[in-house]
Design a protein that fits this description.
Blueprint lengths: L3 E5 L6 H12 L10 E5 L13 H14 L2 E6 L11 H10 L7 E3 L8 E5 L6 E5 H5 L2 E7 L1 E3 L3 E3 L1 H6 L5 H8 L3 E4 L9 H5 L6 E3 L2 E3 L10 H5 L5 E4 L1 H16 L7 E7 L2 E2 L11 E3 L3 E5 L2 H11 L2 H8 L4 H9 L10 E3 L1
Parallel strand pairs: 1-18, 2-3, 2-7, 3-4, 7-14
Antiparallel strand pairs: 1-17, 5-6, 8-9, 10-13, 11-12, 14-17, 15-16
Length: 341
């Protein structure tokens, strides 16, 4: 049996019917039983971002779950950074404004990210703070939009599990595995980094910038805005390994064979959906993938594209997420068979 099922993105066809065929062949919803509380894990898109998964695909999935007798709820955890999804109220409003309204939206980690479960894991992390609504769900459908990412190379199912299913504390723990350094010979103390940081975390000491706050999540804002290119990341691939560790912790809260995955590879931009301005697509639309493994489904996406482009743009190897996930025990294959239907 093929590891991953796939339909090409072909606007000459009814893509909703193509998705229906995909789910049937992949047995996508076999993980759901009657009366299961089913987390439909998605990214509702930052307000203003046009690239999130079209809601009609999500509505279709919700109906499929209801037909089985499951009880679906849309969910995502609140963001660490200050934006339109930082708390449950704003997150719900964003979901509704972006058209996700056929099932209740439950912020996975509570009103202000207070709802979490500390779960043991393996790899570079020993534990991770999993969002409470994820940890308490009976089953989960992980729906991911494949795209680039400044720190981890790309975002797919593994990243959706790792960042999207953990609390703010869990997100911060993962992000802080990356180091941020300032070349003091280039820094002019202009305060651009401090003024552009949403939390004003950089400090200017003796006319030089310093970033030592325990609250810094290594977002690219200060680095991108520095006029002298003095700010740099190091150990970026450590974050890729942290994503795999966190993903494993999330999966540890489910019984075997209770999580399924759907990846949409369209509107593939360099930047992620957390930005209202992700930039133009850098790759052609690919299609929709379905699988029972986050490793296999992400590896299949990387097989279908020239992922070296994403490596160059982010200065990190996209395959690190895949290989580390396999190393710590998440099932799947680095070179899965892809069955096009």
């Amino acid at each position: 049996m093929a590891d991953v099922y796939f339909v090409p993105w072909d606007a000459n066809k009814n893509l909703l019917l193509e998705a229906e065929r995909l789910y049937t062949c992949a047995k996508t919803f076999n993980c759901i039983e009657k009366d299961d509380l089913v987390a439909v894990k998605l990214h509702v898109g930052e307000l203003g971002n046009p690239n999130y998964i079209p809601p009609f695909f999500i509505h279709h999935i919700i109906q499929k779950i209801k037909d089985i007798g499951g009880k679906p709820f849309l969910t995502d955890s609140n963001t660490y950074y200050l934006a339109q999804r930082h708390n449950a109220y704003d997150h719900i409003q964003t979901a509704l404004l972006n058209g996700f309204n056929l099932a209740p939206f439950i912020a996975a980690d509570g009103l202000r990210s207070e709802n979490e479960r500390i779960i043991k894991t393996r790899g570079i992390l020993t534990s991770i703070q999993v969002a409470g609504a994820i940890a308490e769900a009976d089953a989960m459908v992980v729906i991911s939009h494949c795209k680039g990412h400044d720190l981890s190379g790309f975002g797919g199912a593994i990243k959706n599990l790792a960042m999207g299913c953990t609390s703010r504390a869990g997100k911060l723990q993962q992000h802080q595995t990356v180091d941020i350094n300032i070349d003091q010979t280039k820094c002019t103390g202009c305060q651009t980094c401090k003024n552009t940081c949403p939390n004003n975390l950089p400090q200017i000491i003796n006319k030089k910038a310093h970033i030592t706050s325990p609250l810094c999540m290594r977002c690219p804002t200060c680095k991108d805005e520095c006029p002298t290119n003095a700010i740099h990341y190091t150990n970026q691939e450590t974050l890729c390994k942290a994503l795999s560790s966190a993903a494993l912790g999330v999966l540890e809260t489910f019984k075997p064979n209770k999580v399924t995955y759907i990846n949409f590879a369209k509107d593939i931009t360099q930047h992620c959906d957390c930005l209202p301005n992700p930039g133009p697509p850098i790759l052609s639309d690919i299609g929709i993938f379905a699988a029972s493994s986050p490793v296999s489904i992400d590896a299949a996406f990387l097989q279908k594209i020239n992922y070296q482009l994403l490596n160059q743009l982010s200065n990190v190897n996209c395959m690190t997420q895949i290989t580390e996930a396999i190393n710590i025990g998440i099932h799947g294959k680095i070179n899965p068979t892809i069955q096009q239907i």
